[in-house]
Sequence to fold (197 residues):
Amino acid sequence: MKTSLSRPKTDIAFVLLAAGRSERFGSNKLLADFQGKPLWHWAAEAAENAGFEKLFLVCNPDSLLEPRKGWRRVINHDAGRGMGNSIAKGMSTCRHCSSAVVALADMPFVTAEHLQALIDSECIAFTEYGTEGMGCPAAFPQSAFSKLRRLDGDRGASALKWKGAVALAPREALMASDVDTVEQLEELQFVANEQTA
Fold:
């Protein structure tokens, strides 16, 4: 079912990180089939259904991902340096936006409703991962962009010190699941099948 943001958010960027090398997976995990679609399409569709209009897909130079309609490909030539570098590259494309949501392309259970909640917080908001801390998807106002553009290496945005940041728990813990290995993908396929049975 398609949902939309509660009010127009044409000046909010959605930055989807898809520049990893999938080394633990053995092939490009983002192109792997998940419930009849390439894995990365699930997070992309959540952003589209939430009503984001400025959509950025951060890829490495060798990526075979074809951007969906309305998406702009952002090539990170230094993707091998780590996720922090990809966040910095993504944020460099949306410096004129009022705020941005950063998400990972290997999280198939992310929902439009959770993305909406992050934006509605109107502050720096991360997704709560229980005992594992907090991370993406995360929302940032423009005032945080310059700090994010200085990220490098494997450090994610949650590694920085943010005054007044909040962590929002997803409605279901499953939403925070990501895919690093073939086994994890198979486990999530099984869970998804059980939910639709």
